[in-house]
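Standup, Tuesday
Yesterday: got the pipeline producing structure tokens again.
Today: sanity-check two examples.
Blockers: none.

Example 1:
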Amino acid sequence: MIDDQRFGLARRVTLPGPLRLDSGAAFAPVEIAYETYGTLAADRGNAVLVCHALTGDQHLASAHPRTGKPGWWTRMVGPGRPIDTGRDFVVCANVLGSCMGSSGPASVDPATGRPYAMAFPVITIRDMVRAQAMLLDHLGVGTLRAVVGGSMGGMQALSWAATFPDRVRAAVVIASTARHTAQNIAFHEVGRQAVMADPNWREGDYYAASAPAAGLAVARMAAHITYLSEAGLTEKFGRRLQGRDAKSFGFDADFQVESYLRHQGMAFTDRFDANSYLYITRAMDYFDLAEEHGGLLANAFRGTRTRFAIVSFDTDWLYPTAESRAVVQALHAAGAPASFVELSSPFGHDAFLLDVPALDRIVAGFMEAGR
């Protein structure tokens, strides 16, 4: 029995591997940083894996050690909350390729004693899932009561159900997709080019010098726009200037929305690695669950016993409801038990991280139905 008396026990483990990657490489050793909440039952049947999004981390429901901010899903995870740590053993791992303690470009290559940088192997969403499976094996967890994720976390949840169907009893997929569109890839490429155009990038070899903060900030600004909705931006900022008497023309942050985006960009550079941003966005772009299963999405779920809950938001233009409907249609074609709802929210794609009580009720009801 694993008993975490403290709420949000931070851990880091080095697994010998090797981890076989989709690229054909065998990666070892594999470091995984993770947090656990709650107690693993004697029968090990109450484990829930929560998967984070692109710029997220393992600090799911406890304070971030670097920023001091609350965990990114404290309203969803905790005692008596929709994902109830009073009854479930909840695991959240920093994904492979990231920079919050798991193996990534900033990690030290044992063969050279220097950071991997761009020598880190190319990774996929399925590689991230395989690394999580290695962690669960280490923890003694065979079957997950549920895997839950939003955005890139939802991609991981879908990949879990397709890659390890016998290990997943239920999957909650929120504001996500089974593959990136050309537009999704285009937005990511703008961000990657912003990073690589920064003189400080130095072909990824910047760890002993200054990081490409300006390029990464621009990448974050561009991406952040896609996480919001036009209605939300208009309501929050409109065309308001910084000061009532601001009348001069120029290129300072005259509009409030400009100042907001610049703040988002620079704050991001304090906690994230530029090379990790390149690798993870590329992994998302490569993700195509249908292509992984003979070109037909339904094939990914043939014969599965996993229950699915698919949730979208009406103002999400990054992964619009049509993407979720395509997943639901594939699930139904495969005979998989699946429920679907489109929620109304002014928050756009980021709604899954914000205060949407209807989402809390749906997740709580779905999790309770599986007990």
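Example 2:
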Amino acid sequence: MLDAIRSGRRLLSSTVLSGVVLLATMGTASAQGVVIYRCTDASGALTIQNGTPCPKGSKQERRVMEAAPTPPAGYTPPLPAPAPQPVVVPRALRAPPVVPPPPAPPAAAEPAVADGDRLPPPWLYECRTYDDDRYFSDNGDPRPRCVTLTTTGLGGMIENGSNTSACEMKLDQCQRVPDGALCDGWRRRLRDAESALRYGASEDRAKAEAEVQRLTRVVQETTCGRASPGP
């Protein structure tokens, strides 16, 4: 009984001593690297040992794992860089969104008229008024116009603001434009109508637009609108 107790004490002391040696070995190995032994015995059983060589009769594989370098005394790892913060632009400084204008509707295609199907333009008259004002007209026999006369009293004085009024009926003198000058006459009449539309009174705008459209058709759809001049 006493021998068994003594044997147990010797085994405990040997175990403690082995632990101290193992810790010292690991402390040294931690500075140089960790040694791992892979042991395979005769029966094929695999054992992995840390720092302790394999027993005799076993197949041994030795591997050294590098230890991480120890930072110097007083070393402080750098702090991670702060994440970038989004820049907030005040609403008052933001540019308004650009809204593209709506697409313009496609223009209606004008009916093409072949040169062989074109007709000569209508007759045109150049008329002259009593005060030598000239204009073009479709009508060669215009209605007479009433020209207001100045009235005088019995004493020969001009009466302004009186209820008395008189006018003289005057006729415009018109003559037909020659065939060779018809296209030039219609184009001049179209220019005059466009000027009246641009600078005329707003209440007559609808009538002026209709006149410009009518004269444009005459110029474009008759022989005046040929691609190449002809007889």
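Quick observation on example 2: Residues 115-225 form one domain. Confidence is low (pLDDT under 50) at residues 4-31.
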